[in-house]
## 1
Amino acid sequence: MDVAIIGIGLHRFGRTENMSGLQQGAAAVRSALKDAGIEWPQVQFAVGGSQDAGNADSLVNELGLTGIQFTNVWNGCATGGSALHSAYSAIKSGEYDLGVAVGFDKHPRGAFNPKPGDWGLDDWYGEVGLMLTTQFFAMKIQRYMHDYGISNDALIRVAEKAFHNGSLNPDAWRTTALSYEEIAASPMISEPLRKYMFCSPAEGGTALVLCRADRAHQYTRHPLFLKAAVVRTRYYGSFEVFSPAQAPAVNQSATVTASRDAFELAGIGPEDVQVAQLQDTESGAEIMHMAENGFCQHGEQEKLLREGATRIDGRLPVNTDGGCLANGEPVGASGLRQVYEICHQLRGSAGARQVPGKPSVGYTHVYGAPGVSGVNIITR
Amino acid sequence: MTNQRPIREGLFTWPAERPQLLGSRCRACGEMAFPSQNDCRHCCGSDTEIVELGDRGTLWTWTIQSFMPKSPYHSDETPETFRPYGVGYIEMPGGLRVEARLKENKPEELAIGQAMSLSIEPFRRDEDGTEVLAFAFQRSEENA
């Protein structure tokens, strides 16, 4: 059974002082239900996740106690990808006809502070100051730049594009474009990554209404189809966050297999994708993920960025809504925001940030600690 | 005399004249791990032994921690006394790359491929005054 997306909803990312994370999740669900033209009692099941804003199934207290199956998922930054995959599988299997995938969060200001014990590590690792995601991203891109001849110019251009796209997106958190010079002069956080090259923990909610494809036209004249939803974890030898050591063997990232398997499932290749959302926790991640997802060769990114290939008017627009850099990262909601944006692009409703040429194939990729990748392929 | 203890037993040989990092080696497939573990995440077996990983290596990648981390970071520093520190992966003989604090904290002092050596040093004090020892790496002129 094919799976359709018939409703999309978002509660604006950033800071909403007077609303809990859960309430932001509920607002996203209501908005998605309205978009699909249905009411909460019609929803047969839901899957949701949040890291710091409570159990997703508490949403029934806001939306209504209708007795449905509601499953909580948590997979680090890939939580949204995993929630969507679970909902996709439930419909694809034929068990349910219509359901909701939802993610929301509300993080305190400043960097995340994960506990070693939650990640199968001993306390000393955190105590001596090695348990920071920022360090991992910096060290991965540092080595990548060394191996593939990527320069600081590429890191700056990714951030410049993100904040430009954010300035075209009324729902973005950061809606002010930043110049190349401002980014290049921002404080160094973790060599080689500067302040404006990192996304920040944030708040927000996203929800999607899914149904079996053969019923989609009952709800909308313009359904979109989720052709592939794939989640994969790391291999022995891949370089991942929160690793006290890396194996002598070198292996590809979970992103490579998630991407390859998603393309196989959808029966298309990277050359068919017209708009993409790639995990950009920081500038370097977007660069590495361009190649890991099969959109270019390792090392080719420098040239592509200089040519503007990933801008909204480029050959393969990437992170058209400003990505994590301009939207911040409410962990539970972030992966679903990527899908929300792709749906707008494929519907032609992305406003000032609309990709020209009526794109019909979109792609999303989320990456989370400690080596989880989720890829979705969406078509008209 | 000040009492000393390693931040965790089994990370490095202590006391020792020339401390060595400790890890484990799988008796079935030969793969190494740090810190040591009972099971092998390469071949999925469960027959490992503790081995010395050495005290010299080369810098595989690095960054600099410029701000004082939040909990679970646990040193004796305050935001005022915090000193930025390097972080890197050191490629040890045999190929295992171990993550460690680096004593250097300026970009011009660090380069991929640089020879590095192990250093065991007081990191903080327990309430009773015992010095807690942690491992770090520093630039070394000797080749690995």
## 2
Amino acid sequence: MEKKTRITFIEGERIELLPLNPENVKIHARWANDPKTRLYTQNVFPVSHEDLKKRLDQTQERPKRDIFFEIYHKELDKIVGFVEFHNINYINHAANLSVVIGEKEIWGNNLGTEAAKQMIKYGFEELNLVKITASTLKPNKGACRMLEKIGMKLELVLKNQTYFDGMYVDELNFCISREEWEQTNK
Amino acid sequence: MTEEKKDKEDKKEEEDDVFPFIEGERIDLVAGNSKWANLVCKWMNDPKVRHYSRNMWPLTLEEVKKWFEPPPDRQMREFIVFTVYHKEAKRPIGSIGFNQTNWVSRNANIFLTIGEPEYWGKGIAGEASRLMINYGFTELNFHKIFAGVFTPNSRSLRAAEKLGFEKEGVLKEEMYVDGKYHDIHKFALFKRDWKMKDDE
């Protein structure tokens, strides 16, 4: 069978960030419904792959309000998750980052860290953002560690904001400014 | 109903339809209103006006009406336009706006048409431009505002310099106007320079 050409947008060490390939929508649907993965992404409703296709359909709007990439693992030769800027605000030049590794078996390998670093660089250097935020839930220790590792700082705690797995938990908001990022990355 | 009374009511109705977004001294920049489509259509086709605002195509009212339709939701606008409304005369006299807006590089082209030639040369264009530039830098967070003026439009050339625009370059024989090629002078104004002016 003919090998499909991979479309790469950002080249990393172990991973690459690719624009969404509609053929992969079923993989994304599997992650969106996966009991363990969806716990942290707060997907409390079932998602059909048709729903997802509609949601992920890249609109023609420019500048884009949401920017979505698949995380492709070079060695495994498959996509393992996704990263996204959503609600990019072009007046404030701020955006919210989210990173999801959909394949549970490879959690703990710092792949999310690598993807998030690429996104932050892309956000500051190509999109001209001045602030990038990310939010997670207190029980998601892995995400908190990851956000700190990439230089994000805890900015705000929303007490008992989210009902998560049978109890109310805090939502933690992290952020990094372009100055902070430049100090350690230039 | 007496003529006078009717006139008064018309004026009242007119005022109810005007929503100033940015207030100036003699003029306000107000949100568009489709009832002015006729007027805008007249301006854009007027030989004297279109000579300077460089419109060489006949524009139908239907086309102009489309400009007043709401932009798509959620989307950042590439085109931001206001009606220049004369406060004392209580009537719209032109349009001003940004186009070619680049939200990543944070710049835009400023354009302006005073559609009623009787208001030319009275500093109204300057006032409207200052309001618009200030809006661009303080509310839209632009880094740079640029403008293009073609050579015979000496009034606009002077206005651009008076506003603090600096010439960036000349595009040679870029524009064909009334049987001849003309140069376009490209001007730019940066936020840092505008701020300095404000502080003075």
## 3
Amino acid sequence: MSTPELIGRDDELVEEISAPDAEVIVGRSPWQLFWVRFREDKVALASLGVIGLIVLIAIFAPLIVKAIAHPPSAEYPQALDPRFGTPSGPSTTFFFGVDKVGEDVFSRVLYGARVSLEVALISTAIAVAVGVVMGMIAGFYRGVTDTLISRFIDVMLAFPVLLLAMGIASACSFGNGCLHGLIQPGVPTVVAVIAIINWTYIARIIRGQVMSLREKEFVEAARASGAGDIAILFREILPNLVAPIIVYTTLVIPQNILLEAALSYLGVGIGIQQASWGQMLADATPIFNTAWWYFVFPGAALLITVLAFNLLGDGIRDALDPRTVEVT
Amino acid sequence: MVRYAMRRILWGVLMLLVVSAVTFVIFYLLPSGDPAAIRAGRYATPARIAQVRHQLGLDRPIYYQFWLYMKGLVFHFNFGTSFKTNLPVRDTLFARLPVTFSVAIGAVIIWMLIGIPVGVISAIKSRSWLDRATMGASLVAISAPVYWLGLIALFLFAKDIGVIHLFGGANSYVPFTQDPAGWFSSLILPWFVLAAAFTAFYARMVRGNLIETMSEDYIRTARAKGLSERRVIFRHGLRAALTPVVTMAGLDIGALLGGAVLTETVFNIPGIGRLAYDSITGSDLPMIQGTVLFGAFFIITANLIVDILYAFLDPRVRY
């Protein structure tokens, strides 16, 4: 073998280095590493599958219902007991039975997935966006800005979550909604309430991360090469926050699904126009001892959805190196 | 120490004032509807609504309303008057407090007594079959809506309508001073239902903390000097692993004293949580506002106590 030139490729040398018995070392991006670890986690993969299924059900609920069930808001008095007017249980026509006015519980559970996912995903997205921006500003500028934002977060966290949500939702649920009609009663109010309650947690996490990131060499390098604050925040720091943001988001979605359901259960949620799981559980409460199907199925749907998101969140956190991502 | 405590208390008082102000914004500035119209009732004449508006002071400028509101809160502990019962909100809240306390105390005992041992066993037998099973079950408990668990518990075990007639059902709450046995029986189901998610959460937290603690150097030292594994775990490991648990418990108790809204609602227990629910149904804004303020008061106080205790136990905090 001739001595290879130091610069340029020498096929013979490459061949020698990657000899059959030597282990091939491949460079992997953090995302490849994440995927390799995540792929091993069978529980997380299964929960991802379940979530995919629930999303499909939510999207195609009208088609499914049209094909095999009854419209969600149509009443079928013939399904009620002719003497007492009590609803009938699961059967081949009504898979999950009917509720007290003769509506198909199966269809309503399917449609409930839409409301649940819609509200949880939109409110989480808003909360994360607001929280990340506020956290980045507080952590990056420090000083008075940080004090103002952090103390405001302290105040928000001093409120009891559910009571605050009930308070805002009820204050917004009469008249023309909140802020002179900017936030209408119904879905917008619930989304706003959940977002208001949630942004504080993510802002705190992001603030802590940014405080240490802003001292790193790559930020200094960017500044030395003339980058402004905005460019540093969004081009240099934000990409490094992707992992904690993803972990936090997947862990907070199930909580928000539960919060939406709880608000609907308490009567300050979406309202009765749309079928939602929490609302169904509230309606089922007065007659739960005679119509078990009425509370079992919506509750089970809620449990499965929340559990799937929780398992997925755990899997993603573990795969994204738990040591560097501290989410408590 | 005293200086630190004083500073924390002052900060707590300031927090209370700011929280009151934010509550004012939520209940006086956010709504576009007219509280006077709610107060006056459905069939009130415009003249009557105007009269009510004047009574409530809603026709005054907003800063003057704020001044009256803060003055009432700070000097007279006045939370306003209920729209529905015409009773002072403060008195109603205090009357409901023992009930909410009853609900909270039992749940706390249950989740501490079950959650901590389960977490310790899971940590010791980490990655075993038992650990996986309990951690899986705990995730289910965290994911289940508490009011749904309540309905299932009532359906299965309530004395009046349950499959097995075992414990008091919904509406069966009696004060401890009237009938201790009845009080206990009526609260068993709510206690376990409320404690379910907390138990699971605490078990997971204890497990995580203990596993992390057991990889510390001083644990290796303890093992190296020949201590029994039992002693290493209980004397050295658990002590450090439980500190955050105690902190967390303090904060959770504070939050629960503001009312376990969902549990009290599903079991129809007349505590502060149920009061909040009933007030929502009746659009009783001063009452809802009162429960929010009351809840915040407990959370801030719990935070304060935990912080001061912490500083007392760990001098490093007193910077």
